[in-house]
Amino acid sequence: MAVIGSILLASTDPDALRGWYERAFGVVADPGDGFLWIGEVGLMIVRRDDIAAAPAEPARVMLNFHVDDGRAVARHLDELGVSWIAELEYREPVGAWFATLADPDGNYLQIIELTPAYWAGRPDPNRRSGAGPLGTGSVATRLPAQDLDRARKWYADKLGLEPVEERPGGLLYRSGSGSFALFTSQGRPSGEHTQMGWTVADVEATVAELRRRGVEFETVDVPGLRTVDGIAEVEGNYPSAGGKGERAAWFRDSEGNLIGVGEPVR
User: Fold this and answer.
1) Distance CA 227, CA 219 (A)
2) Of these four, 118, 203, 205, 220, which has the most CB atoms within 10 Å of its CB?
3) Which residue range is the domain that position 260 belongs to?
4) Strand, coil or helix: what is 190?
């Protein structure tokens, strides 16, 4: 399974271009690696000597920025004196606001506001579950570990995962567009329900590779759910998953946490 995790934008004056993106979208380059993180996608602006100062075909590739309020973003960009290729307009029957502009190097980018009309009849993977105090917060899985060093070694050896950050008593991992953390705890997981799950493109290949690494998969045989060679056919799925069902498998980590992997059935 592959995801677009970052975009490289070449420039003859990367410092100036990076500064413009920081001002335009209210982000700051990561001091460690220089990425501008805009949502879940990192934008890396680098110097190259084998390019022209401006792109020959700026419409060939565009950066699309999805925003909550297109008019507010357009007003802010007006204050920066941007060059509009197409000013903000509402497009039917798409049900969205679009505007196209050029950055200082001449690259085209779009700001897009997807309205409720767009999402009518479409599953929205970014739709929030409510407007309460947690409705706009980010959420991630936390798994207890009685022996954090043992758990760290298990995740490295069996799953090929290394923490991206650590703090006393905690390890943070990122995978695809999500994250999870292991934390030191004297509590034990019940192991009676799935505590964390991955969606994969090919569950059979994933199970085979994890078995090669020494992961032991659970055998399940209960009414309505039975594994065959470690994989079960699960009825139903969320609309945003793009499937009518799921093929799933489960295993436990070194601390007894029950983890699942699933492939949507279309």
Assistant:
1) 6
2) 203
3) 141-265
4) coil
pLDDT, tens digit, 9 for 90 and up, residues 170-224: 999 988 768 899 999 988 888 789 999 998 889 999 999 999 999 999 999 999 8
Give a yes or no: residue 131 inside a domain.
no
- Torsions phi, psi of 184, nearest 5? -65, 130
Residue 246 lies in a domain: yes
Do 159 and 260 belong together in one domain? yes
CA gap 19, 228 in Å, rounded:
55
pLDDT digits (tens, 9 = 90+) for 1-53: 467 789 999 999 999 999 999 999 999 998 888 999 887 789 999 999 999 99
Indicate whether 98 pLDDT > 70. yes
Write phi, then psi, for 77 (nearest 5 degrees): -70, -35
- Do 161 and 253 share a domain, yes or no? yes
Give the domain-ending residue among 89, 119, 149: 119
Q: Which amino acid is at 115?
A: T
Contact of 35 with 6, CB cutoff 8 Å: yes
Overall domain count for the chain: 2
Residue 76 in 3-state DSSP?
helix
pLDDT for 191 equals: 76
- 100-127 pLDDT per residue, tens: 999 999 999 999 998 877 766 565 555 6
The mean of the pLDDT values for the chain is: 89
Q: Would you state the torsion angle of the CA atoms of residues 11, 16, 21, 24, taken in this order, to the nearest 10 degrees?
A: -140
In a domain, 129, yes or no: no
147 shares a domain with 90: no
What does the alpha-carbon distance between residue 144 and residue 186 come to, in Å, rounded to a whole number? 8
CATH of the domain at 216: 3.10.180.10
